[in-house]
Amino acid sequence: MKKSKGIFQQLVKPWLPNASRDQNEDDLERIAAQEQKLLSFGTLVASTKNFHHSRKLGEGAFGPVFKGKLPDGKVVAVKKLSHSSTQGKEFKTEAKKLARVQHRNVVNLLGYCAHGEENFLVYEYVANESLDKHLFRSDGREAFNWERRLDTITGIAKGLLYLHEKAHIRIIHRDIKAGNILLDDKWVPKIADFGMARLFPDDQTRINTRVAGANGYMSPEYLMHGSLSIKADVFSFGVVVLELISGEKNFPFTRDSDSKNLLEWAFKLFKKQRALEIMDPALASSADPQHIAMCIHMGLLCVQSDPDLRPDMGRVVMILSKKLTALEEPSRPGYPGSRYRRSRTPGASSSGTGYSGPSNSLSFGSTSSSKSATSSSSSEHTSIRSDPHGKRPM
Ligand SMILES: Nc1ncnc2c1ncn2[C@@H]1O[C@H](COP(=O)(O)OP(=O)(O)O)[C@@H](O)[C@H]1O
Ligand SMILES: [Mg+2]
After folding, report:
1. CA 253 from centroid of its chain's CA atoms
2. CATH topology of domain 2-124
3. 295-348 pLDDT, tens digit each
4. Which ligand sits nearest to residue 66's alpha carbon?
5. 131-386 CATH choice from 1.10.10.10, 1.20.1290.10, 2.60.200.30, 1.10.510.10
6. 2-124 against 131-386: fold identical
7. Are 271 and 291 in contact (CB under 8 A)?
8. What residues contact 75, with CB distance under 8 A and at least 6 apart?
9. pLDDT tens per residue, range 340-393
10. Which is the closest atom of ligand 1 to the Cα of 130?
11. Which of 117, 142, 260, 314 is least crowded, fewest Cβ atoms below 10 Å from its Cβ?
């Protein structure tokens, strides 16, 4: 359609007066730019009132973010990337690929702009703040009830599965955390900041955080050896799940003086069949204890120290949809300072008689063998490790 219009314009061009010929060329350029999602610097300046401080939404490790309005009325978040990102052609190539990554549970990238040394990413605006702001506030957490939290867990799981396995390029997020999950006006969770691992391949900020071990979401193998795979994202997802259920931050953690962090506390209680004690008191009136117990169990599987033992996101989505119910016993969680050891044998499988979680009376039936699921996730991990691009996921 567009192509035939273009051909038509080319044909009539010689007979058009000069002014309208320029106009047509401008139009053609604009259409081409739109298709490539390349936005002009002028458009960004106009849409953010010249990056006015009143438009600033905040500033993260990758640079400041401004609220803006595009000429078509669309409200956007414009992220100005700090200088350590990829430059020039490489930035445009990566940004073009990322703009094709579209999913309901991912903050869609609407466009990008390269202006001199400066690079910008333009995202859809997500209205209802980030997960941490809902979860770690001192009051009003009841509004973020169990149904919403479960929808959030499921949405993040589906978004991550898409990034890992279904998008046209494989994307390891590398920075899954409560602050990078945005909620829209209908409480639909959306994963923000995907693709940074591609745009900041040697990210100094992450390396510093790694040395400090301070963010509480990093898997031990990434923290200690810089080894990045989809299982690092699974680990971070598991931390978010346990934070969503407990309303506690993994780190810093003060709730139990005998535990260094939320993961250790949850694991200890799980071992004593008392896992439900981690539940946020604000969930008391909306809780579905059976489902919460299953989610704690799943969260603990995701944060296991050995990446090979963690489920992949496909399996997590199946567990959440209750299609997979016989869950193996989780082994120790990994956290800074804990010894990262690769187990030779998978965690002891539950007897196959059904889910037996923190409360022994709970049962979710039995439809699948945890052993086969574990081995399939192992081979997935191995294939990613042999990725010739190493830390730069493809
Ligand atoms: N697409 C978006 N829609 C609405 N707000 C956003 C969007 N992207 C980022 N923000 C907000 O901008 C601020 C800075 O974001 P970011 O640079 O990603 O930092 P961080 O993830 O480290 O908090 C955060 O408060 C975040 O909620
Ligand atoms: Mg962010």
Report:
1. 22
2. Phosphorylase Kinase; domain 1 (3.30.200)
3. 999 999 999 999 999 999 999 999 999 887 789 999 999 986 665 555 444 443
4. 1
5. 1.10.510.10
6. no
7. no
8. 67, 68, 69, 125
9. 555 444 443 333 333 444 443 333 323 333 333 333 333 333 333 333 333 333
10. 27
11. 117
